[in-house]
Amino acid sequence: MRNVRSIFAVAAVAALGLSACTTDAGNDAATEDEGTGTSTSTATADGADCSGGDGTLRIGIKFDQPGLGFQDGSTYTGFDVDVATYVACELGYGADAIEWVSAPSANRETMLENGQVDMIFATYSITDARKEVVDFAGPYFVAGQDLLVREDDDSIDGPESLNGKNLCSVTGSTSAQKVKDTLASEVQLLEQPGYADCVTVLEAGQVDAVTTDDIILAGLAATPANSGKFKVVGAPFSEENYGVGLPKGSDMCEDINTAITAMIDDGSWEEAVTSNTEGTGYTPNADLNPPTPAACA
Amino acid sequence: MSQAVLFDTPGPRARRNILVANVIGGVVAAGIVGLVLWKLGQEGQLAAGRWTSLFTGSAWMNFFLPGLQNTIVAALYSVVLAVVFGLVFGLGRLAPLAPVRWLAGMVVEFFRAVPVLIMMVALYIGLGAFGVVSPRDVPLVSVVVALTLYNGSIIAELVRSGVFGLPKGQREAAAAIGMTHGKSLRLVELPQALIAMLPSLVSQFVVILKDSALGYIITFNEFLQLSRQFGGGNGNMLQALIVCAVVFILINWLLTRAAALVARRLSRRTSGRTQPRLVNAGAAGAAGTPAT
Amino acid sequence: MNLFEQVSFLFSSYNIPAAFWVNIQLTFWAAIGALLVGTVLGLMRVSPVPSLQWLGTAYVTVFRNTPLTVLMLLAVLGVWSQLKITFAQDFATNFFIYACVVLAIYHAAFVCEAVRSGINTVPLGQAEAARAIGLPFLPAARLVLLPQAFRGAIAPLGNVLIALIKNTTVAAAASVAVETSSVMRGMIEANSNMVILIFMIFALGYVILVVPVGVVTTSLSRKLAVTR
């Protein structure tokens, strides 16, 4: 019996030890995959000295929106990433002091509230409802809600022609809410956790359109995997002000607005827009862009 | 009951009938598979480009392997903590003191009844609101704590039923040589019960691994989440999900086999029963009353 | 607000019973489906036909080892979207039925194992006696084996039912947005100062649903146990 007990004890100790060392390895990897990978930024001010901040800055971005926030192997690309990199530099955090964290639409408020991220650059529209739980800096871009349809579908040219059609959007996005509020009586809405799911369903023909902001749709339509399959309708029917999500009561708003203004003034903003929308056929609304950051609350 | 006694050995005619039925069944099955494949082909889901990107170094180094690692880390934490939880409350339910038994019983019954997903979501939002753990660990901690509480209460039941499942003679023999209740439990009953429950423990690992996939709902970067991320970026979400399912099936199947092997090896070392529990339905309750 | 005011505030602003009602309906339909499919699978696994045994084993291996979440996602993205199997034109009904079907398919694997464990409780002599009076496999199973096997399988079947009740929350992954876990999430996000209270309301709701099932099946399994 003693023999048996010692075997069990050894097994238990081994299990503990095993989990301990695997866990360390796991944390390293978690850091890695949450993204200390360097961003391929084109927008960071040349020769800028990004120092002064201590520790790392955890920035929430989308990992699945080509052209905005996208994980490409071990690097992160897109307009949101470029703006975030620039702003972080102005705040004193170099590219290697940034930790990118995936921030799906449905989790953005929670991630700010529970401190998983310090700020969010994830096509995050400023709305009154969200302002009640989080703070916003910016806007740093103005997009419009639009529709993505199959390349061969000519029956949809705007929200009015959606009667009797099926629509897909992402859980927790303003687009889904807007459709529910204004179009829900005439369309069926499918809510999915990410835009890639919506695009898969759209391609198969089970929904007729995917709705969200035009710049997101343009990026999705232009990825190699989707090229030639979809088109953006091109009749935006809302104004979406992309802001920088901050925890309620954050003191960083002023600094971020200053950084955004600097980025627009020195031409890096324009450069980031151009390089990230190249080949998508998308041009931002010139009347509204570049926007002037609103006063901080 | 062994299967051989349920029916007579098939004679020549029965064998012929079986053969015919097999051929028909096989044709029907092949037809269904063919139809599904044809339909998927029509939708372009079988195009080589959608599959080849799954088997590149970049896909595995940046997505699948880190995801798998996080899944396994969360599962290992949960297993170790659930065993501790299970021992504490399982022994609590065997305690001579009635209030202790009653309290341990309440805790175990409560956590067996609450869905893991409900616990995960509440912990994810709650832990952050109270600032008890470092924010970056909130998803991992939520997953581990939810899995620990649920599986720990299952293991507590295993401990209890493991001790009950021992032949009465063991306890009587211990009493006969003058051992107290505690001594008998510690030196005679528990060691055998633990060995008897080891196979069930291994199969509980399957439950934990499967349930950790719920973590994607609360931004834990586990295997399913990163598979989805990869599929989303490469236009092959469906294919990435299939890879994810296959990997889960393989790992869990190996674990189940391991549990059966452990059971056979250990049956000599205990007078308890070492069959792995037959029912473990994942994100939910099982155990408790062992199948008799 | 005191505790009572908070509770009445939550119950008046959100339809919590309706959320539970969705989960109860999911449980009801999925339980019927799982019991039927699971029993057939259990019989297949003890049948004289090797190919049926093999099929039953393969089914159990595949569906017992895949996370339910993955099955739900595959059902929507694979079966509904690619194979275009549609149960209803209305999305809400369609995905509700999908969730029921996936829950039934998944839990059938566990019902199969429970039925098999029940068959294992039937003594050898019963089957031998059935054969001795000339009953072929199916009548022997129907008249002699299964009635006893189900009595022996009540406790494990109760466990599967408990698992099913709790697993209905995973239907959230199949676009069923009005069930408890989604509703609870929305409530906590909007009232983060009442996290513990909201969690306790839903947790107790499940305790109320689950504990009686456990008590009833345990007492039934004792009462109906075949005395030998």
Question: Any key phrases for this structure?
Answer:
heterotrimer, B: 292 residues, mainly alpha, 10 helices, flat, C: 228 residues, 0% strand
Layout of SSEs?
The complex is a heterotrimer of chains A (297), B (292) and C (228).
Chain A: H1 2-36, E1 57-61, E2 64-65, E3 69-72, E4 75-77, H2 79-91, E5 98-102, H3 108-113, E6 119-120, H4 128-131, E7 134-143, E8 145-150, E9 166-170, H5 174-182, E10 188-192, H6 195-204, E11 209-213, H7 214-222, E12 230-232, E13 240-247, H8 253-265, H9 268-277
Parallel strand pairs in A: 1-5, 1-6, 9-10, 9-11
Antiparallel strand pairs in A: 2-3, 3-4, 7-13, 8-11, 8-12
Helix pairs in contact in A: 2-8
Chain B: H1 12-42, H2 48-52, H3 57-93, H4 98-113, H5 116-130, H6 138-164, H7 168-176, H8 181-212, H9 223-234, H10 237-266
Helix pairs in contact in B: 3-4, 3-6, 3-8, 3-9, 4-6, 5-6, 6-8, 7-8, 8-10, 9-10
Chain C: H1 3-13, H2 16-46, H3 50-65, H4 68-80, H5 91-121, H6 124-132, H7 137-152, H8 154-167, H9 180-190, H10 195-224
Family (chain B): Belongs to the binding-protein-dependent transport system permease family.
Transmembrane segments (chain B): 20-40, 47-65, 71-92, 113-133, 139-159, 238-263
Protein name (chain B): Glutamate ABC transporter permease
